Amino acid sequence: MKKLSVLFAFMLGFMLLHAQTPKHYYVKITTNKGESVLKLYNETRKHRDNFVKLVAEGYYDSLLFHRVIHNFMIQGGDPDSRYAGSRQELGNGGPDYKVPAEIQADIIHKKGAIGAARDDNPAKESSASQFYLVQGRVFTPAALDSLEQFRLKGKKLTPLQRETYTTIGGTPHLDGNYTVFGELLKGIEVVDAIAGVKTDERDRPMTDERFSMHLLTRVEARDFERELQGLKPKKGIFTKLFDSMKSRTYKLP
Q1: Which residues belong to any copy of the PPIase cyclophilin-type domain (predicted)?
Q2: Domains contained in the chain, CATH given
Q3: Residue 152: how many CA atoms within 13 Å on its side-chain side?
């Protein structure tokens, strides 16, 4: 009996060891230019949870990137774009609520970041559904000096901003004005491809650029996090047994 108890405890511990909940939520974005994988930040929980809810509901399926500006960003999330005519003006659709601002000094508009679009409300509350993916550009130190002097009216960039925007690139003038709530970890070239398409006078692509989104399951997210660490997915018998007993979804605090 004692041996069986020890064996059971060992197996239970082994299964629990392999049962780690993923550290983040991840969203796969599928376009006709390829696929990307987005990590949502836990530091911006209100935006994270709202986005997860909409993705899980299929809200974003077959919407358009309706506003595209080369070396700046690509914007989507307007539900009116799903069945929009070729010349229809877009950018005003979305749920009838806003998400409180979660702007943080150390979460910036680097290339590949996802930010929440908004109108000119003084509280800087975000649109519930519209978002943009940053393309931006790489700046020289002199260009950042000029940005500080003229566009930022003397406000100094932080060391983090200077390091990021002279290496990775992005859109520094948006910092402090819009909530950034995640970043692409895979498929940044998709943003470059869409940002380079021809657009009309309203910055809408001449050819529809549709996308859909899929929230990674617990197993998919766990395996993706292992991939980021250079590790292979867990495929052992105990892992499969535990996975069969668990929900496909997971909830983060």
Answers
A1: 34-208
A2: 22-138+168-216 (2.40.100.10)
A3: 19
Kindly calculate the radius of gyration of the chain based on its CA atoms and give it in whole angstroms: 21
Q: What is the pLDDT along the chain (253 residues), one digit of tens a residue?
A: 555 554 554 455 545 544 579 999 999 999 999 999 999 999 999 999 999 999 999 999 999 999 999 999 999 999 999 999 988 999 999 999 999 999 999 999 999 999 999 999 999 999 999 999 999 999 999 999 999 999 999 999 999 999 999 999 999 999 999 999 999 999 999 999 999 999 999 999 999 999 999 999 999 999 999 999 999 888 777 676 667 677 889 999 9
- Exposure of 229 by Cβ count < 10 A (0-12 exposed, 13-18 middle, 19+ buried)? exposed
Nearest CA to 143 out of 68, 69, 71 is that of: 71
* Dihedral of alpha carbons 207, 70, 97, 182, sign: positive
Would you call 162 helix, strand, or coil by DSSP?
helix
Q: Which residue has the tokens 């995640």?
A: 182
In sequence order, the 6+-apart residues with CB closer than 8 A to the CB of 171 are 72, 73, 109, 134, 136
> 34: phi > 0 → left, psi -120 to 50 → alpha, else beta; which?
left
Q: How far apart are CA 53 and CA 62, in angstroms?
A: 17
The DSSP secondary-structure symbol of 130 reads -
Token pair 């002097």 is found at 149
DSSP label at 110?
B
Per-residue exposure over 125-143, b if at least 16 CB sit within 10 Å of its own CB, e if not: bbbbbbbbbbbbeebeeee
Measured torsion, CA atoms of residues 120, 212, 79, 56, in degrees rounded to the nearest 10: -90
